[in-house]
Amino acid sequence: NITTKFTQGLPKAELHLHIEGTLEPALKLKLAQRNHVDIGQTTIAEVQKTYEYHDLASFLAVYYPAMNVLQTEEDFYDLAMAYLHRAAANNVRHAEIFFDPQAHTSRGIDFATVINGLYQATVDARALNIDAHLIMCFLRDFSKESARKTLAEALQYKDKIIGIGLDSDEHNNPPLKFARQFEDAAAAGLHLTTHCDIDQKDSIEHIRQALEIMGVERLDHGTNIVEDPDLVAFAAKNHIGLTSCPLSNTFVTPEMKGKEVIELLNKNVPVSIHSDDPAYFGGYISDNYYALAQQFNLTVEQIVQLARNSFATAWISPEQKQLYF
Ligand code: ADE
Ligand code: ZN
């Protein structure tokens, strides 16, 4: 029988984690007080009560306003360090962490404030035995022009970023909208991934664009791919990592997409398990492994394979992969 001790102790790479999604109610309140931001609540329980949603759009409507409490470099550092301590307790050995600069620059915070605070935390993560990196995401519901400007700023900090991604509201915002930015980022040596959220309108077409036209190396969520055998074969052949987030899925649809994960394992697609926005979706990475294992009766071998896949599809050298498994 799978235990929480087992899922916690298993060495893991976290590849799908939004740093803004790790803002726990207690930290939100602390930062609100520190920065004199009126968030409308004065106790942790009151903040917790506002963390309520039933689909992607209603989640994002809570998620973005919460970020107002993040103002200074120190705030971004504290947010990331709080996550990294949790990650260390979950035996996360390697982390590739998403951040959304436009969610901050659009409310008047400098790009430098965001990246410098987050980056310092990735440096200090070494003392926690975590190899941590940053992936910059474009908000896909913002304009192409905004993405262009954001990439130009990001390229000034190229050494502090390992890759780029695409998140936020997918509805009518296909990957191809950002083809030019992805091309430019790849030319600058950055890795590529994109969200293809579960059960979206045009899910399969978005997955196809991302894989066949834009050449992304991973898909975040992306489990709707099982509807298209040719794309599944493409993902297996090209070793495309799919980063599935079981607890997050249950907020968007009634289920964790465990059947899809098992099918992908059986078809040799390197799917792996992550936590998405753990402060909002009720659990960190080990909780996600545990919940999926319980609900779908996963074997020890399947769980170990999921963890192996997380390192296999991480953006690290073959030599470094050997260190973990
Ligand atoms: N930003 C943070 N979490 C997200 C998710 N699950 N989907 C899209 N954008 C996000
Ligand atoms: Zn996500």
Automatic annotation (TrEMBL):
Positions contributing to substrate binding: 277
Any one Gene Ontology BP term: adenine catabolic process
Gene3D superfamilies assigned to the protein according to its UniProt record, in alphabetical order: Metal-dependent hydrolases
GO cellular component terms, semicolon-separated: cytosol
Enzyme Commission number, as recorded: 3.5.4.2
Top-level lineage group: Bacteria
Positions marked as site (Important for catalytic activity): 221
Adenosine deaminase domain mapped to chain residues: 11-325
Cofactor dependence: Zn(2+)
Note describing how the cofactor binds: Binds 1 zinc ion per subunit.
Entry GO MF terms: adenine deaminase activity; zinc ion binding
Uppermost EC category: hydrolase
Amino acids binding Zn(2+): 16, 18, 195, 276
Classification via InterPro entries: A_deaminase_dom, ADE, Ado/ade_deaminase, Metal_Hydrolase
HAMAP family recorded: Adenine_deaminase (MF_01962)
Family: Belongs to the metallo-dependent hydrolases superfamily. Adenosine and AMP deaminases family. Adenine deaminase type 2 subfamily.
NCBIfam families: aden_deam (TIGR01430)
Biological role: Catalyzes the hydrolytic deamination of adenine to hypoxanthine. Plays an important role in the purine salvage pathway and in nitrogen catabolism.
Name used for this protein in its record: Adenine deaminase
Organism from which the protein derives: Bombilactobacillus bombi
